[in-house]
Design brief:
The chain is of the alpha/beta class. Helices cover about 45% and strands about 15% of the residues. The chain has a six-stranded parallel sheet with strand order 2-1-3-4-5-11, with helices on both faces. Strand 6, helix 7 and strand 7 form a beta-alpha-beta unit. Helix 6 runs parallel beside helix 7. The radius of gyration is 24 Å and the shape is elongated. This is LacI family transcriptional regulator. InterPro entries: Peripla_BP/Lac1_sug-bd_dom, Peripla_BP_I. Keywords: DNA-binding, Repressor, Transcription, Transcription regulation.
Length: about 300
């Protein structure tokens, strides 16, 4: 009898072209099968992470809802609140100004929250970052061991964790090799603006005593800097040694090939997705996880050895 009823129900579903009402199912199961992702802007770095994350989540029936907050502090909190009220099953957040106190005002139910790229201050949650300090140290150390003593750096905003860690690597390398830092060689820029990278590189080039090498710590800033170097007809590495960040396509177009720090963007997305699924199954055995992934330093022909 039960089998006969099942067959009749399946035939009725086909005949009526029945579709699952996800909202109704969500109310019944307390799951929406969605994961919210909050990012500062839509750009290559975050897009690659999201694509990797989504590929794994789709295999398990989860969809991804992405919001960007355009590097706006007020919008960041509003978009976080928006995603939470959409009753997503988990949240992946790239914070800029978001703090634990902001989250506690909004979140009233137990859902997994994972911070990527940057930790959330004063909030206990899973966090996935890159070894920003270590890889920046290696990049600057390479320049120092090749004889450079006048090394410029184009950093991100001073309030952003990744920018602070990359600058810390630059400073520590100078300190450990007893190389004095010219504060005029440190330029703070906008992570998401090629124009800003262009402007800061121009400022370094126009100094009375310009650097012999520059480390650029972000994709958009690297692209803007290369445009500035082309406009000034600066010969790499004869007139300036350069190490960029994440710009693998640009690296192939620039002659000679550009030395780069490459972040493991696909791995970040993969690790985040696997961790989300683990938490959604109720497994908190390693909570809160702080996972640091390794970026690579690829040395090409854009740096040269000079005599001290």
């Amino acid at each position: 009898m039960l089998e006969k009823n099942r067959i009749l129900i399946e035939e009725a579903i086909k005949a009526l072209d029945f579709e699952v009402n996800e909202i109704a199912r969500g109310l019944r199961t307390n799951k929406t099968m969605t994961v919210g992702v909050l990012i500062p802007v839509f750009e290559q770095f975050f897009s690659t992470i999201i694509s990797s994350l989504e590929t794994i989540l789709l295999e398990t029936g989860y969809s991804v809802v992405v919001c960007d907050y355009k590097d706006d502090e007020k919008l960041e909190k509003e978009r976080f609140d928006f995603l939470y009220k959409k009753r997503v099953d988990a949240l992946v957040v790239v914070p800029s100004s978001l703090k634990g106190s902001d989250i506690r005002k909004i979140v009233k139910r137990d859902i997994p929250i994972i911070a990527i790229d940057r930790p959330i201050p004063d909030y206990e949650c899973d966090t996935i970052v890159v070894n920003n300090f270590e890889v920046s140290y290696k990049a600057v150390e390479k320049l120092i061991t090749m004889g450079h003593r006048k090394i410029g750096i184009i950093c991100g905003p001073q309030n952003i964790y990744t920018a602070k860690e990359r600058l810390r690597g630059y400073i520590e390398a100078h300190k450990n090799y007893n190389v004095e830092i010219d504060q005029g060689y440190i330029k703070f820029s906008d992570y998401h603006s090629m124009e800003s990278g262009f402007k800061k590189m121009m400022e370094l080039l126009e100094k009375d005593n310009p650097p012999t090498a520059v480390f650029i710590t972000n994709y958009d800033m690297t692209v803007g800097s290369i445009i500035a170097l082309n406009e000034k007809d600066v010969k790499i590495p004869d007139e300036l040694s350069v190490i960029g960040f994440d710009s693998i396509e640009i690296a192939r177009m620039v002659k000679p090939p550009l030395s780069l720090v490459l972040q493991p963007t696909e791995e970040i997305g993969k690790v985040a997705a696997e961790l989300i699924l683990k938490r959604l199954k109720g497994d908190k055995s390693d909570f809160p996880l702080f996972k640091k992934l390794d970026a690579q330093l690829l040395i090409k022909k854009s740096i040269k050895e000079i005599k001290c």
